[in-house]
Amino acid sequence: MCGIVGYTGCSSAQSPLLEGLKRLEYRGYDSAGMSVLGKDGILHTLKAVGKVRKLEELASQTPLEGACGIAHTRWATHGAPSEKNAHPHLDGASRIAVVHNGIIENYRDLRAELEAEGETFRSDTDSEVLPRLIAKYYSDDPVRAVEEALQRVRGTFGVCVLFQDHPGLLIAARSGSPVILGIGKGFNMVASDVCALLANSRDVIYLNDGDLAVVTPEDAEIRTLANVPVNREISRIPKEETGSGKGKYEHFMLKEIFEQPESIGNTIRGRIIPEDGNAKLSGLNLSPRELAEISRIVIAGCGSSLHSGLIGEYYFEEIAGIPAEVEQAAEFRYRNPIIEPNTLVIPISQSGETADTLAATREAMQKGATVAAISNVVGSTIARECGRGIYLHAGPEISVASTKAFTCQVTALWLLALRLGRNRRLSNELGRQSCAELQRLPELIQRVLNQYDHVAALAKKFSGMNDFFFIGRGFLYPVALEGALKLKEVSYVHAEGYHAAELKHGPISLLGENVPVIALANCIPGQEKLLGNMQECRARKSPVIAVATEGDPSVEAFTEDIIRVPETSRYAAPLVTVVALQMFAYCFAGERGCEIDQPRNLAKSVTVE
Ligand code: AGP
Description:
The protein is α/β, with parallel strands linked by helices. The chain is built from 18 helices and 27 strands.
């Protein structure tokens, strides 16, 4: 979603700002802009609809010369993607520039008030009230003006403000939308995502909600919005978290699909105790007694993270014998969920910044639950606020379509179920079996990846189709949902995931020769029933693509279009199966010439509700 970069130093601001914006591109956006305080003492602003490269072209024709500036990528919420709606927004006199992430909920009232005072707005955005409010409260103290303006605001914000009258000064603040400072030698930066800082600095400070930072090239002083000084630690981002380019791959999505043997290896590294048939998850910070007291598990997430949670539900019930349920994070707090003292709530979020999942996390904490997050981004808001959980260590996931984070989430849930199970009645022997299979996952996944050319040929064969159903049972039912989500995300075709038995209760009316069904037939138990469901689809003339276990001839009666995956237990089946579906979605989107890493309308991290 929207991205913020700010730079103050002694060399040109333009290049770190553009570099930061490029690193934020993966999050999804539709316009970009940048303001720099010029050597002439005037704020200069450039904006472009579309890609950052357009802004870069503008900047190469009319360079913004100056050592302090702010930049933004906008994902439209209030007002269409257009130059006038792109950030930075300026006050009426063009002396204050603001970039903003989040939503100002009371912007209509504030705008009406400001218009009544004579202000004429230039954009349709909620964000434009900010520079105008700041101007209203500004006489000579910029920090006070920002504080006063932000006190009037209801909603969420991550902001960075640049004043024409104060060279070298950036003021940043956050409430519900991440802001991170990058600490350098002779310069400092501000960003909404650590990625935007990493080309220049690995030393970062995460602002907390309610923090305001006064940033100059030499200093970053942090206080609360109520003007109380606070100390926030500098964290050093490990080299392996800084990511690299696409390497030999055409797209990040493909790179990340192929990274899965390694990323899953990283999720399990150091966490398996084979001789005990157990897992060690020190980030949970829960004693054996506290673990034993957990009597119910509630998982909350969105999109792919919701789907991994649905697989987790099976793990917790089967392996650990603990009742589990999965909630759409967006509904969690509005449903007023019942949280008992021994409920463990698990928010799952790759980014750790998804607004709905964050709101669910806070609701659960406020209700007194034990909350342990599963997150990939170290230092993300959800991870920090929970203070306990499991980091995936999948490395940066850049493609909007989640692949490696999903499989690492599933792996982490399996590890957690094992840990909880061994705390209860799961035998050493069954625990050892899980450990052995977890350790084999990289090899099993690699065997699926080796099918890439075959999957690509299938994707080509079906590339003219516009409607797909994905069906599965048991552990593979959530995988059907995830397979359909992947396909629609990157290739824009209609795809629905269904429980195989549910097809008969309505959607079967849509089947026909132009509606292929992808049947996840490598499930044991339930395979016989799934074969029956495939038969039903064939009877309605739907072409069937089957995912089936290597060497299993049973699906051959229904189709010749088969993707083979290794034989596994039902616990590992979701992991091998989803990798096949990820490859199918990627190849299918490629056949249709779609923008794979940044699909239209989508954002990597959805920071508005
Ligand atoms: C996955 O491919 C999607 N891009 C999306 O559904 C994503 O999983 C969802 O927005 C949740 O993101 P999070 O894991 O960062 O919270």
